Amino acid sequence: MSERPPAPTGRPTGPRRGTATVLALGVVAALAFMPAVPDHRSGPGTPAATSTPGADATDPTVTVLGDGSTSDTGPQPGQPAPVRLKLGEQPPQFVVFSFDAPTEDGNHLFSGARTSARSSGADVTFFLRGVDVLPASVRWQYQPPQHEVGTAAVPFPTDAQVRATLQQLGRAWLDGDEIADGFIGQFCGPEGGRDWSTTDWQSEIGQGYSMVNFWKTGTGFTDLPPLPFDYQTELAGGRAPCLEGRPNLLPAEKDAGWRYDASSPGDTQRWPARIDGIWEFPLQRIPSGAGEVLSANQPPQTYLNAFDRVYHGSRAPLVIDTDLAPGHGTGPDLQAAETAMKDLCHRDGVRCVSFRQLADWLDAQDPGVLDHLRALGSTSTPNWAAVVGP
Known about the structure:
Layout: H1 19-31, E1 63-65, E2 70-72, E3 93-100, H2 109-120, E4 125-128, H3 159-175, E5 178-181, H4 198-213, H5 215-219, H6 231-234, E6 237-238, H7 246-255, E7 260-261, E8 274-275, E9 278-280, E10 285-288, E11 291-294, H8 300-311, E12 318-323, H9 331-344, E13 350-353, H10 355-363, H11 367-374, H12 384-387
Parallel strand pairs: 3-4, 3-12, 3-13, 4-5, 6-7, 7-9
Antiparallel strand pairs: 1-2, 8-9, 10-11
Protein backbone atom coordinates (compact mmCIF):
# COMPACT_ATOMS: atom_id res chain seq x y z
CA MET A 1 0.00 0.00 0.00
CA SER A 2 1.57 3.29 -1.01
CA GLU A 3 1.28 6.46 1.07
CA ARG A 4 -0.81 4.83 3.75
CA PRO A 5 -2.46 7.30 6.16
CA PRO A 6 -1.15 7.21 9.72
CA ALA A 7 -2.37 5.99 12.68
CA PRO A 8 -11.84 -25.54 -0.80
CA THR A 9 -15.61 -25.12 0.46
CA GLY A 10 -17.25 -21.94 -0.75
CA ARG A 11 -14.47 -21.30 -3.26
CA PRO A 12 -15.45 -20.39 -6.82
CA THR A 13 -14.40 -22.90 -9.46
CA GLY A 14 -15.18 -20.92 -12.63
CA PRO A 15 -15.74 -17.41 -13.97
CA ARG A 16 -17.47 -15.26 -11.40
CA ARG A 17 -20.73 -13.39 -11.57
CA GLY A 18 -20.25 -9.85 -12.79
CA THR A 19 -16.77 -10.26 -14.24
CA ALA A 20 -18.15 -9.59 -17.73
CA THR A 21 -18.76 -5.96 -16.76
CA VAL A 22 -15.32 -5.23 -15.40
CA LEU A 23 -13.56 -7.32 -18.03
CA ALA A 24 -15.35 -5.52 -20.84
CA LEU A 25 -14.31 -2.15 -19.42
CA GLY A 26 -10.75 -3.33 -18.86
CA VAL A 27 -10.28 -5.01 -22.22
CA VAL A 28 -11.58 -1.98 -24.11
CA ALA A 29 -9.32 0.33 -22.11
CA ALA A 30 -6.20 -1.83 -22.00
CA LEU A 31 -6.11 -4.00 -25.10
CA ALA A 32 -6.76 -1.03 -27.36
CA PHE A 33 -3.29 0.19 -26.43
CA MET A 34 -1.45 -3.13 -26.74
CA PRO A 35 0.86 -3.67 -29.72
CA ALA A 36 -0.63 -5.70 -32.57
CA VAL A 37 2.62 -7.66 -32.87
CA PRO A 38 4.46 -7.92 -29.54
CA ASP A 39 8.19 -7.35 -29.72
CA HIS A 40 10.68 -9.50 -27.79
CA ARG A 41 12.41 -7.51 -25.04
CA SER A 42 14.68 -9.92 -23.24
CA GLY A 43 18.22 -8.68 -22.96
CA PRO A 44 21.21 -8.28 -20.65
CA GLY A 45 20.25 -8.41 -16.99
CA THR A 46 16.90 -10.09 -17.64
CA PRO A 47 16.26 -13.21 -15.50
CA ALA A 48 16.54 -16.47 -17.41
CA ALA A 49 13.22 -17.78 -18.64
CA THR A 50 14.17 -21.37 -17.84
CA SER A 51 14.10 -20.58 -14.09
CA THR A 52 10.46 -19.48 -14.20
CA PRO A 53 8.02 -22.07 -12.86
CA GLY A 54 4.89 -22.31 -14.93
CA ALA A 55 2.50 -24.62 -16.67
CA ASP A 56 3.85 -27.20 -19.09
CA ALA A 57 1.72 -26.79 -22.22
CA THR A 58 2.52 -30.38 -23.21
CA ASP A 59 0.94 -31.74 -20.01
CA PRO A 60 -2.58 -33.03 -20.88
CA THR A 61 -3.84 -31.95 -17.42
CA VAL A 62 -2.95 -28.30 -18.17
CA THR A 63 -5.26 -25.95 -20.06
CA VAL A 64 -3.39 -22.93 -21.41
CA LEU A 65 -5.65 -19.88 -21.46
CA GLY A 66 -5.95 -16.80 -23.66
CA ASP A 67 -2.68 -15.76 -25.25
CA GLY A 68 -0.72 -18.23 -23.10
CA SER A 69 -0.16 -15.88 -20.16
CA THR A 70 -2.13 -18.02 -17.69
CA SER A 71 -3.30 -21.60 -17.39
CA ASP A 72 -5.57 -23.94 -15.48
CA THR A 73 -3.42 -26.55 -13.74
CA GLY A 74 -6.11 -27.72 -11.34
CA PRO A 75 -6.76 -26.81 -7.69
CA GLN A 76 -4.11 -24.74 -5.93
CA PRO A 77 -1.75 -26.95 -3.92
CA GLY A 78 -1.83 -27.03 -0.13
CA GLN A 79 -5.20 -25.39 0.48
CA PRO A 80 -6.81 -26.37 3.82
CA ALA A 81 -10.40 -27.58 3.86
CA PRO A 82 -12.46 -25.28 6.14
CA VAL A 83 -14.13 -27.07 9.06
CA ARG A 84 -17.07 -25.80 11.09
CA LEU A 85 -16.41 -25.31 14.82
CA LYS A 86 -17.80 -27.98 17.08
CA LEU A 87 -19.94 -27.05 20.06
CA GLY A 88 -17.79 -25.44 22.75
CA GLU A 89 -14.64 -25.53 20.62
CA GLN A 90 -12.16 -22.67 20.89
CA PRO A 91 -11.59 -21.02 17.48
CA PRO A 92 -8.16 -21.15 15.88
CA GLN A 93 -6.03 -18.05 16.23
CA PHE A 94 -5.79 -16.84 12.65
CA VAL A 95 -2.90 -14.57 11.64
CA VAL A 96 -2.98 -13.08 8.14
CA PHE A 97 0.30 -11.81 6.72
CA SER A 98 -0.25 -9.66 3.64
CA PHE A 99 2.26 -7.93 1.38
CA ASP A 100 1.50 -4.93 -0.83
CA ALA A 101 3.12 -4.19 -4.20
CA PRO A 102 5.18 -7.35 -4.78
CA THR A 103 7.63 -6.10 -7.41
CA GLU A 104 10.79 -8.21 -7.51
CA ASP A 105 13.81 -5.94 -7.86
CA GLY A 106 17.40 -5.89 -6.65
CA ASN A 107 16.26 -5.84 -3.02
CA HIS A 108 14.50 -9.22 -3.47
CA LEU A 109 11.70 -8.32 -1.06
CA PHE A 110 9.02 -10.31 -2.92
CA SER A 111 11.12 -13.47 -3.06
CA GLY A 112 12.23 -12.88 0.53
CA ALA A 113 8.65 -12.66 1.78
CA ARG A 114 7.67 -15.73 -0.23
CA THR A 115 10.51 -17.92 1.02
CA SER A 116 10.01 -16.78 4.64
CA ALA A 117 6.34 -17.71 4.44
CA ARG A 118 7.17 -21.14 3.08
CA SER A 119 9.78 -21.83 5.78
CA SER A 120 7.34 -20.71 8.51
CA GLY A 121 4.48 -22.83 7.22
CA ALA A 122 2.40 -19.74 6.43
CA ASP A 123 0.12 -19.08 3.46
CA VAL A 124 0.10 -15.34 2.78
CA THR A 125 -1.62 -12.79 0.54
CA PHE A 126 0.24 -10.75 -2.08
CA PHE A 127 -1.67 -7.70 -3.35
CA LEU A 128 -0.43 -7.54 -6.94
CA ARG A 129 -0.67 -4.16 -8.67
CA GLY A 130 -1.22 -4.02 -12.41
CA VAL A 131 1.93 -1.91 -12.77
CA ASP A 132 3.93 -4.81 -11.31
CA VAL A 133 3.51 -6.62 -14.64
CA LEU A 134 3.52 -3.57 -16.95
CA PRO A 135 7.02 -2.39 -17.92
CA ALA A 136 7.75 1.31 -18.25
CA SER A 137 8.52 0.70 -21.92
CA VAL A 138 4.82 0.00 -22.61
CA ARG A 139 3.19 2.08 -19.88
CA TRP A 140 0.89 3.67 -22.50
CA GLN A 141 -1.21 0.51 -22.34
CA TYR A 142 -2.70 1.76 -19.05
CA GLN A 143 -5.63 4.16 -19.25
CA PRO A 144 -6.14 5.35 -15.66
CA PRO A 145 -9.46 6.87 -14.65
CA GLN A 146 -9.32 10.70 -14.55
CA HIS A 147 -5.63 10.76 -15.56
CA GLU A 148 -3.55 10.81 -18.72
CA VAL A 149 -2.86 7.55 -20.55
CA GLY A 150 0.35 5.86 -19.41
CA THR A 151 0.65 7.66 -16.08
CA ALA A 152 0.66 6.34 -12.51
CA ALA A 153 1.38 7.69 -9.04
CA VAL A 154 4.24 5.17 -8.67
CA PRO A 155 7.12 4.28 -11.00
CA PHE A 156 6.56 1.64 -13.65
CA PRO A 157 9.02 -1.27 -13.34
CA THR A 158 11.75 -2.15 -15.79
CA ASP A 159 11.47 -5.07 -18.20
CA ALA A 160 13.83 -7.13 -16.04
CA GLN A 161 11.78 -6.41 -12.90
CA VAL A 162 8.58 -7.54 -14.60
CA ARG A 163 10.19 -10.78 -15.71
CA ALA A 164 11.46 -11.44 -12.19
CA THR A 165 8.06 -10.60 -10.71
CA LEU A 166 6.33 -13.07 -13.04
CA GLN A 167 8.75 -15.74 -11.89
CA GLN A 168 7.89 -15.11 -8.25
CA LEU A 169 4.12 -15.04 -8.91
CA GLY A 170 4.18 -18.58 -10.24
CA ARG A 171 6.25 -19.81 -7.31
CA ALA A 172 4.03 -18.03 -4.76
CA TRP A 173 0.87 -19.65 -6.11
CA LEU A 174 2.48 -23.08 -6.14
CA ASP A 175 3.52 -22.48 -2.51
CA GLY A 176 -0.16 -21.97 -1.64
CA ASP A 177 -0.09 -18.17 -1.37
CA GLU A 178 -2.95 -15.96 -2.55
CA ILE A 179 -2.53 -13.48 -5.42
CA ALA A 180 -5.02 -10.68 -4.74
CA ASP A 181 -5.60 -7.28 -6.37
CA GLY A 182 -3.69 -4.19 -5.26
CA PHE A 183 -5.10 -2.22 -8.24
CA ILE A 184 -2.92 -0.42 -10.79
CA GLY A 185 -2.04 3.26 -10.75
CA GLN A 186 -2.03 3.88 -6.97
CA PHE A 187 -3.72 7.26 -7.40
CA CYS A 188 -4.92 8.76 -4.11
CA GLY A 189 -6.79 11.87 -3.05
CA PRO A 190 -8.37 14.27 -5.60
CA GLU A 191 -8.94 12.55 -8.97
CA GLY A 192 -7.68 9.36 -7.34
CA GLY A 193 -9.37 6.54 -5.51
CA ARG A 194 -11.09 8.93 -3.13
CA ASP A 195 -12.96 10.57 -6.03
CA TRP A 196 -13.43 7.63 -8.38
CA SER A 197 -16.91 6.49 -9.36
CA THR A 198 -17.96 2.86 -9.38
CA THR A 199 -17.46 2.91 -13.16
CA ASP A 200 -13.90 4.19 -12.63
CA TRP A 201 -13.19 1.33 -10.21
CA GLN A 202 -14.70 -1.15 -12.65
CA SER A 203 -12.29 0.12 -15.31
CA GLU A 204 -9.37 -0.22 -12.90
CA ILE A 205 -10.37 -3.79 -12.00
CA GLY A 206 -10.95 -4.75 -15.62
CA GLN A 207 -7.62 -3.36 -16.78
CA GLY A 208 -5.94 -5.25 -13.95
CA TYR A 209 -7.49 -8.48 -15.21
CA SER A 210 -6.24 -7.72 -18.72
CA MET A 211 -2.69 -6.90 -17.62
CA VAL A 212 -2.34 -10.27 -15.89
CA ASN A 213 -4.44 -12.38 -18.26
CA PHE A 214 -2.57 -11.00 -21.31
CA TRP A 215 0.87 -10.15 -19.97
CA LYS A 216 2.53 -11.94 -22.89
CA THR A 217 0.75 -9.68 -25.38
CA GLY A 218 1.40 -6.62 -23.24
CA THR A 219 5.08 -7.23 -22.55
CA GLY A 220 6.20 -9.31 -25.50
CA PHE A 221 7.85 -11.82 -23.15
CA THR A 222 6.64 -14.79 -25.18
CA ASP A 223 9.60 -16.95 -24.11
CA LEU A 224 8.23 -17.29 -20.55
CA PRO A 225 5.83 -20.11 -19.59
CA PRO A 226 2.28 -19.26 -18.51
CA LEU A 227 1.44 -18.65 -14.89
CA PRO A 228 0.17 -21.91 -13.37
CA PHE A 229 -3.21 -20.44 -12.41
CA ASP A 230 -6.27 -18.74 -13.89
CA TYR A 231 -6.08 -15.22 -12.47
CA GLN A 232 -9.73 -14.43 -13.18
CA THR A 233 -10.93 -17.47 -11.25
CA GLU A 234 -8.42 -17.14 -8.41
CA LEU A 235 -8.99 -13.46 -7.65
CA ALA A 236 -11.11 -13.17 -4.49
CA GLY A 237 -10.47 -9.67 -3.11
CA GLY A 238 -8.36 -6.55 -3.06
CA ARG A 239 -6.94 -3.61 -1.16
CA ALA A 240 -7.29 -0.05 -2.47
CA PRO A 241 -4.35 2.38 -2.59
CA CYS A 242 -4.23 4.62 0.49
CA LEU A 243 -7.29 2.73 1.78
CA GLU A 244 -9.56 5.19 -0.03
CA GLY A 245 -12.77 5.12 -2.04
CA ARG A 246 -14.60 2.21 -0.44
CA PRO A 247 -18.18 3.56 -0.91
CA ASN A 248 -17.84 3.38 -4.70
CA LEU A 249 -15.31 0.55 -4.73
CA LEU A 250 -17.45 -2.02 -2.89
CA PRO A 251 -20.18 -2.12 -5.59
CA ALA A 252 -17.48 -2.68 -8.23
CA GLU A 253 -15.97 -5.50 -6.18
CA LYS A 254 -19.37 -7.07 -5.69
CA ASP A 255 -20.06 -6.81 -9.43
CA ALA A 256 -16.76 -8.62 -10.05
CA GLY A 257 -17.86 -11.41 -7.70
CA TRP A 258 -15.15 -10.75 -5.13
CA ARG A 259 -15.57 -12.21 -1.67
CA TYR A 260 -13.66 -9.72 0.51
CA ASP A 261 -12.27 -6.21 0.71
CA ALA A 262 -9.18 -5.25 2.72
CA SER A 263 -9.35 -1.48 2.18
CA SER A 264 -10.77 -0.29 5.49
CA PRO A 265 -8.35 2.14 7.20
CA GLY A 266 -8.40 0.58 10.64
CA ASP A 267 -10.62 -1.02 13.24
CA THR A 268 -10.20 -2.73 16.57
CA GLN A 269 -9.21 -6.39 16.61
CA ARG A 270 -12.62 -7.97 16.21
CA TRP A 271 -14.06 -10.87 14.27
CA PRO A 272 -14.92 -9.82 10.69
CA ALA A 273 -18.36 -8.96 9.38
CA ARG A 274 -19.85 -8.76 5.90
CA ILE A 275 -20.87 -5.55 4.15
CA ASP A 276 -23.42 -6.21 1.42
CA GLY A 277 -22.19 -9.78 1.11
CA ILE A 278 -18.45 -8.95 1.09
CA TRP A 279 -16.20 -9.83 4.03
CA GLU A 280 -14.49 -6.76 5.48
CA PHE A 281 -10.87 -7.38 6.49
CA PRO A 282 -9.53 -4.02 7.70
CA LEU A 283 -6.08 -3.11 8.80
CA GLN A 284 -6.31 -3.09 12.57
CA ARG A 285 -5.55 -0.73 15.41
CA ILE A 286 -3.09 -2.57 17.62
CA PRO A 287 -1.51 -1.58 20.95
CA SER A 288 1.74 0.38 20.92
CA GLY A 289 2.89 2.09 24.09
CA ALA A 290 0.05 4.15 25.49
CA GLY A 291 -1.80 4.30 22.18
CA GLU A 292 -2.61 2.33 19.06
CA VAL A 293 -1.12 2.13 15.55
CA LEU A 294 -2.14 0.49 12.28
CA SER A 295 -1.06 -3.12 11.95
CA ALA A 296 1.40 -2.39 9.12
CA ASN A 297 5.16 -1.85 8.98
CA GLN A 298 5.60 -2.08 12.76
CA PRO A 299 8.38 -3.48 14.99
CA PRO A 300 8.10 -7.18 15.86
CA GLN A 301 7.22 -6.55 19.50
CA THR A 302 4.22 -4.46 18.48
CA TYR A 303 2.90 -7.39 16.47
CA LEU A 304 3.54 -9.77 19.37
CA ASN A 305 1.64 -7.50 21.77
CA ALA A 306 -1.31 -7.43 19.37
CA PHE A 307 -1.16 -11.22 19.08
CA ASP A 308 -1.15 -11.72 22.87
CA ARG A 309 -4.18 -9.47 23.25
CA VAL A 310 -6.40 -11.70 21.11
CA TYR A 311 -4.69 -15.08 21.57
CA HIS A 312 -5.55 -14.96 25.26
CA GLY A 313 -8.81 -13.16 24.56
CA SER A 314 -11.37 -13.19 21.76
CA ARG A 315 -9.20 -15.10 19.23
CA ALA A 316 -10.10 -12.46 16.62
CA PRO A 317 -7.87 -12.75 13.52
CA LEU A 318 -4.72 -10.62 13.52
CA VAL A 319 -3.75 -8.85 10.28
CA ILE A 320 -0.08 -7.94 9.71
CA ASP A 321 0.73 -5.99 6.54
CA THR A 322 4.03 -5.04 4.92
CA ASP A 323 4.62 -2.75 1.94
CA LEU A 324 7.14 -4.20 -0.53
CA ALA A 325 6.93 -1.44 -3.14
CA PRO A 326 10.26 -0.15 -4.47
CA GLY A 327 10.92 3.11 -2.69
CA HIS A 328 8.44 2.28 0.07
CA GLY A 329 9.17 -1.29 1.10
CA THR A 330 12.27 -1.62 3.27
CA GLY A 331 14.34 -4.51 4.53
CA PRO A 332 13.62 -3.74 8.22
CA ASP A 333 9.84 -3.79 7.60
CA LEU A 334 10.08 -7.19 5.94
CA GLN A 335 12.38 -8.45 8.68
CA ALA A 336 9.80 -7.44 11.29
CA ALA A 337 7.11 -9.44 9.51
CA GLU A 338 9.48 -12.39 9.07
CA THR A 339 10.35 -12.34 12.78
CA ALA A 340 6.68 -12.35 13.76
CA MET A 341 5.91 -15.08 11.22
CA LYS A 342 8.68 -17.32 12.50
CA ASP A 343 7.58 -16.81 16.11
CA LEU A 344 3.81 -17.08 15.75
CA CYS A 345 3.00 -19.56 13.01
CA HIS A 346 4.19 -22.64 14.91
CA ARG A 347 2.40 -21.83 18.17
CA ASP A 348 -0.35 -24.08 19.44
CA GLY A 349 -3.72 -23.31 17.88
CA VAL A 350 -2.30 -20.71 15.45
CA ARG A 351 -3.05 -20.82 11.73
CA CYS A 352 -1.22 -18.41 9.43
CA VAL A 353 -3.55 -18.09 6.46
CA SER A 354 -4.31 -15.91 3.46
CA PHE A 355 -7.34 -13.63 3.35
CA ARG A 356 -9.06 -16.00 0.95
CA GLN A 357 -8.51 -18.93 3.31
CA LEU A 358 -9.91 -16.87 6.17
CA ALA A 359 -12.99 -16.10 4.06
CA ASP A 360 -13.34 -19.83 3.31
CA TRP A 361 -13.31 -20.64 7.02
CA LEU A 362 -15.80 -17.89 7.90
CA ASP A 363 -18.14 -19.06 5.15
CA ALA A 364 -18.14 -22.54 6.69
CA GLN A 365 -19.21 -21.38 10.17
CA ASP A 366 -22.63 -21.20 11.77
CA PRO A 367 -23.87 -17.58 11.32
CA GLY A 368 -25.12 -17.51 14.91
CA VAL A 369 -21.70 -18.50 16.23
CA LEU A 370 -20.08 -15.73 14.16
CA ASP A 371 -22.52 -13.25 15.70
CA HIS A 372 -21.39 -14.39 19.17
CA LEU A 373 -17.73 -14.05 18.18
CA ARG A 374 -18.25 -10.54 16.80
CA ALA A 375 -19.81 -9.47 20.11
CA LEU A 376 -16.57 -10.22 21.98
CA GLY A 377 -14.12 -7.50 22.92
CA SER A 378 -10.47 -8.08 22.01
CA THR A 379 -9.46 -8.79 25.61
CA SER A 380 -12.56 -10.82 26.56
CA THR A 381 -12.10 -14.08 28.44
CA PRO A 382 -14.84 -16.07 26.76
CA ASN A 383 -16.67 -19.11 28.00
CA TRP A 384 -16.30 -21.01 24.73
CA ALA A 385 -19.02 -23.47 25.65
CA ALA A 386 -21.44 -20.53 25.62
CA VAL A 387 -19.96 -18.60 22.68
CA VAL A 388 -19.65 -21.62 20.37
CA GLY A 389 -22.92 -23.13 21.46
CA PRO A 390 -26.47 -23.70 20.28
